[in-house]
């Protein structure tokens, strides 16, 4: 929209750009996130920030046996990684963002446009309101009564800093990209970010109120609970949790696979607000591509409402396919049979891998 000289107001509830950690790393697909960057004129700026080596992937058994090892091709640009903070700053650039603008309600059909009410009591009207406000969208209720539901799977996230110098044995375990270990109904995944930073995710099936009596700020108690959950796994793998200094619980919620709504003039959704799905490398890519497509449709529109309606139809069809696929992947990745998780990677991961039978000589650590 900026490149087409169309005025846009960007409302962000965070009080500033650096109000909270921006999150981990993500891979941008050539035909999705990278395509959106190309449309925005930012692909050339993205490439120096991206990490093609981050596409490397290693899978271990719970005893440390290396089951699969996919090295990365440094010249491969199909799905390079980038830190979320770097991507956010690239996208925002010098754009004018209105920080600290918490939206409480969106009311279409007011006659003068779409009314937006703010947490501080103010209100404004706009020609088109695009809810790109995530899983617990404040815009979604203007279009749909549906809310996200719990998948039965919880992630607990922790971090390791300066891993190459402080924990060289874990740096070797993780490699250039990610390492994943799958057991019955649980998994441990560690993923490199830039600057020697690593995000670690414990994934397991549990009630929504798992360890509700634990104080999230009590890192020792959370760590002990997680180590008990993964009891019996090889010591080098458990070190990924042992060195974590802070833990964040993230129960996974999703919207129904076929989530749509009756078109409402002046309001639409994209990204997680429209089609929240498991965090398996698709959500950010879809949100970026949808943003680019919606902007192009609006910029070229003779009839704004018809352009948005056509965008929604296209978005629903594509997002529905991905939601169905990622839901099936999640069920297999955190399942009673760890072989099901391995099969997911064999289905989707291109290129040769090193394979060592369980009990073989190649072990982590």
From TrEMBL:
Gene3D superfamilies: FAD/NAD(P)-binding domain
Amino acid composition bias (Basic and acidic residues), ranges on this chain: 11-20
Signal peptide limits: none
Domain FAD-binding: 110-300
Keyword flag Oxidoreductase: yes
Key word Oxidoreductase present: yes
Alphabetical list of InterPro entries matching this protein: FAD-bd, FAD/NAD-bd_sf
Domain of life: Bacteria
Pfam families in the cross-refs: FAD_binding_3 (PF01494)
Protein name: NAD(P)/FAD-dependent oxidoreductase
Region (Disordered): 1-24
Keywords (A to Z) from UniProt: FAD, Flavoprotein, Monooxygenase, Oxidoreductase
